[in-house]
Amino acid sequence: MMCHARGLPRAQVYCVHTEPNYSLPWQRKRQATSTSSGFMVMFGGKRRLLTNAHSVDYYTQVSSQRGAGAPSPRCRHSSCTLEPPCHA
């Protein structure tokens, strides 16, 4: 089974990451930022933002903005759910 992303609303994903410091667990390493892409999908009657797991790895803040086209405000997300990869 293949999934084609044509026709799905595109989004830019902005993330602030803070990787844990395993040698000093009470401290964190420096924050880093990244930008990636994603798609808005309907799942279980709710809109979800679908992106790669490495895009939001060790996230502290995640926000998104509609992709190319008219400017739109950024939406800040309160949580991320990382699902195991599905290989079909």
Comma- or semicolon-separated keywords:
88 residues; mainly beta; five-stranded antiparallel β-sheet; 5 strands; elongated
What secondary-structure arrangement, pairings included, does this model have?
Elements: E1 10-20, E2 28-43, E3 46-50, E4 59-66, E5 75-77
Antiparallel strand pairs: 1-2, 1-4, 2-3, 4-5
Low-confidence stretches: none
Main beta sheet: 5 strands, antiparallel
Question: How are the strands of the biggest sheet laid out side by side?
Answer: 3-2-1-4-5
Report the strand count: 5
Gyration radius, to the nearest Å? 15 Å
Indicate the structural class.
mainly beta
Number of helices: 0
In terms of DSSP E residues, the strand content is over 45%
Q: How would you spell out the order of helices and strands?
A: EEEEE
Helix content: under 10%
The shape, in one word, is elongated
Average pLDDT rating: 75
Question: Gap between N and C termini, in Å?
Answer: 6 Å
Question: Please, could you describe this protein's structure?
Answer:
The chain is an all-beta fold. It has a domain of 60 residues. Strands 3-2-1-4-5 form a five-stranded antiparallel β-sheet, with no helix packed on it. The mean pLDDT is 75. The chain has no helices and five strands. The protein is elongated, with a radius of gyration of 15 Å.
